[in-house]
Write a structure and sequence with these properties.
Elements: E1 4-13, E2 16-26, E3 31-35, H1 42-49, E4 57-62, E5 67-70, H2 82-92, H3 97-110, H4 126-138, E6 144-148, H5 156-171, E7 176-180, H6 183-189, E8 192-197, E9 200-206, H7 207-212, E10 217-223, E11 236-242, E12 245-250, H8 256-266, E13 268-274, H9 279-287
Parallel strand pairs: 3-7, 3-8, 5-6, 6-7
Antiparallel strand pairs: 1-2, 1-4, 8-9, 10-12, 10-13, 11-12
């Protein structure tokens, strides 16, 4: 049974369809990334999952409690010291004062913001504020995590720290859902991803399943090729240029050998290889430039 099950979510804001039949599941100990362009519906989905917004239709089921939630914007009390907030939030979740203080200090150190323990939240940079908010989502040892843009504003070192923390939580059986648009990071970090565009899920599955399940793609490099040599090829879809090589996808059962013969006729072939697409390439194929709401 999934630890998180989202089924048939629909949401309208006036005449705007924000979500249209959005659904996915997350298993215990699974890292699930909800990726899409700005305005695709990621934050609306997260807010409905946490009960911040009411859905027009659909259902969200959780298999654990308590929940750790990281909202999209700055969500801490601006004039309250960071450590005091963490202790206060831990106490709200039922921790005793000693355990709350210990947990607050642990996450301040673990996330690299211990030097900000006595700073007011409004004084923090975007990246430090995100880490403080993540500490707030973790301080009560939640049974599941729902994180909206947890890597926003983080430098590479902080990204590594947060990634490690999320992997550790997943290894302990905690289901983790996060929204974002860092595709390369999602590919490295996630077990499964869902690609959302214009309020609709356009792809859901394991990273290996999605990147390995695309049609046959070829990377072809020629020495001094005739300009536009591949433009007239039938049975292929052009994917673009990659460092001087041509990327294309076979369609309608096109044979690789026919493409190779066409390449050899256009010049000396220096590379002819199958190309496994990255999640970023699949994302742009599914989403397209300029989409989003």
């Amino acid at each position: 049974m999934p630890a998180i099950e989202v089924t048939g979510l629909r949401k309208h804001f006036g005449d705007v369809v924000a979500l249209d039949d959005v659904g996915f599941t997350v298993g215990a100990g699974e890292l699930f990334g909800l990726v899409g362009p700005n305005g695709a519906g990621k934050t609306t989905t997260m807010r409905i999952m946490l009960g911040v917004l009411a859905a027009d239709a659909g259902e969200v089921r959780f298999g654990g409690d308590p929940i750790g939630y990281l909202p999209e914007g700055r969500g801490l009390y601006p004039r309250m010291k960071v450590r005091d907030q963490l202790v206060y939030l831990a106490r709200l979740h039922g921790l005793g004062i000693n355990d709350a203080c210990t947990a607050a200090e642990h996450w301040l150190v673990r996330l690299g913001i211990a030097h900000h323990r006595d700073d007011e939240a409004r004084r923090l940079s975007l990246g430090d504020h995100r880490r403080a908010q993540l500490a707030a989502a973790l301080v009560h040892d939640p049974a599941l995590l729902v994180l909206d843009e947890p890597f926003a504003g983080l430098d590479p070192a902080a990204v590594d720290v947060v990634s490690t923390v999320l992997r550790e939580k997943a290894a302990r059986g905690v289901p983790v859902v996060f929204a974002g648009d860092r595709l390369a990071l999602a590919e490295r970090l996630c077990d499964r991803v869902g690609i959302i565009r214009d309020g609709r899920m356009v792809a859901v599955g394991g990273v290996d399943e999605l990147t390995g399940g695309a049609g046959t793609r070829l990377r072809i490099a020629l020495d001094d090729p005739a300009p536009g040599w591949a433009d007239g090829l039938g049975g292929v879809r052009m994917l673009g240029d990659d460092g001087g090589a041509t990327l294309l996808e076979l369609v309608n059962g096109t044979d690789e050998q026919s493409v190779l013969r066409a390449a050899m006729a256009a010049g000396r072939v220096t590379e002819f290889s199958r190309h496994r697409p990255t999640l970023t390439e699949l994302f742009h194929t599914a989403v397209g430039e300029g989409h989003g709401r």
